[in-house]
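Hey team,

Filing this mostly as a record. A colleague (T.K.) asked me to run one chain through the structure pipeline before their review meeting, and I want the input and output archived in the tracker in case anyone asks later how it was produced. No errors, nothing strange. Just documentation.

Input sequence:
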Amino acid sequence: MTEPKFSDLLRQHAFLRFWFTRLAGTAANQMLMVAVGWQMYELTGSAWDLGLVGLYQFAPVLLFTLVAGYVADRFNRAKIVAVAMAWQWLVAVILALASYDVSNAGSSSHSAWLSRELLLGLSVVLGLARAFQMPAQQALIALLVPAPLLPRAMAFSASGMQAAVIAGPALGGLLFVAGASVVYLTCALLFTVGITLALRLKYGHVRVPYERPTIGSLLAGVSFISQRKVLLGAVSLDLFAVLLGGATALLPMFAKDILHVGAWGLGLLRGAPAIGALLSSILLTRWPLRTRVGPILMSSVAIFGVATVVFGVSENFVLSLIALAVTGAADMVSVVIRQSLVQLETPNEMRGRVSAVNSVFIGASNQLGEFESGATAAWFGPVGSVVVGGVGTVIIALLWLRLFPTLARRDELAPQTPSPETKKPGD
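Output structure:
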């Protein structure tokens, strides 16, 4: 069999349409988050309210993602993505109108339109839209490319997302100079592009007769993962690595008190992991992982932990940037392997619910990781918090070698048996 090339991926027109859909939607969402956070801080000057914006977005994900996974397995996934983007488009338009009124009608309009309550309420809508969008979006990729191309497709898709994560906030910050309404209208335009592309996305969707959802059908994704050591090990490894090793929440403290670089340095520190992830995803697109994926996964998590420790003890700004870039690059290797395993090991009729569980794990690790960083920083200081987290991540990688030997020994990404793996003694 001829080895698939990158040029073969570029011939997958449905996948390319999906790639641009995700690029537009991610860039718009990132710009939206920057503008909402900035306006909340302008209105209230409260760090607590900034935290509430994130919490209000995460709560719907935690509450509705399992339902969203069930929906993704029964209905057209491309249309679900389009509807979710339509809700985000509506939020952008409402905020554009509110911000326009504020800038043109004085303070009385400020209290009537743009308020803390409006921003928090719309944050819930954004979280609900993302809760339904993520499982459907993740479960789509495997339907758009042949299985041998999936690792390249995962890496290429991740590179587009990372580019949007970098460019979206930067563009949003620049446009904010012209007014918040300009940012929100630009977001609405990008969401319009994403909706249009998603509605034109065709794949072999099979209509499933309606059956009333049950607790068992909603939790089927949880059951599926728990019965497969490879998937359980990969998903839980990412959860604990990000939970312990994330230093994002403490970057303002490092920028101001340890590295003494101010706001401009904070921006570079926040962008460094995304730049490392982007470079890593480009390399994985060009040279996809084919063998020894288990050992590479474990090694990437350990490297993530070591780089986190280096960042924690560094007092040199350049070294800190390099360390953060390495964490982003190592994390991207882990993400590509994990998501490829999830898609390849899961039958199509279960991908939505399994992707939903994966989404909850990702969201929980990011949100709880920020809380963990803050709590340990209160006890040990920022340096102690980051170092303890990095060391904990390395320990987790070593522990998972013993707890999940099937994953640690995994050679190829492609499923090694067509049915659920047979449990072996010691697994």
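Quick notes for T.K.: Residues 348-403 form the longest helix (56 residues). The radius of gyration is 21 Å.
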